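Structure tokens please, single chain.
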Amino acid sequence: MIARSRAQRWLLLLMCLVIPWSYLGLEKLDGRWFLVLNGRPVDVTGQADQAWTRWWRDCGQVQVMHEPAALRLALDAVRRFSPPDSLSGEWVSVQQHKSWVLAQVRFERLHDAVVLMRTSARRAEVVAVWSGFTHPHQPEAWIRRHLIVQAPQAPPALLDCFAFQAKSGQ
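Here you go.
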């Protein structure tokens, strides 16, 4: 009887370890490891990165951009980037840190874009652009990494304070 009880405990322990692994896995996508939960990839490292960034970021010097002339100047720079489809660009969000501007732009026929620009009194220069899908990546962490590679001189506070706004239904 004792041997049977011991065997049942081992079998129960084995089942507790094996059954969850049938629903869990690891998969490498775009050079990063994802936890696969019941067939769906989960960006655990991206979620941890975003949580860390939200906890430690300092958005005190980052401002929402309201000045109409500067907004028009920056939007003109975005619209010139890849016409004719970029001509339909409209702001989703625009943030500024000193002479740097980070904007999310929505188009009629293109994917949303996140555009990093340097501005002066008379012009806006596009420095870095991200456009496309983020799935299954955590959007802010994925976009931030992409922009840092293109523009390592960009102010970290501006990139850390960016919040991607997905289209409704996504």
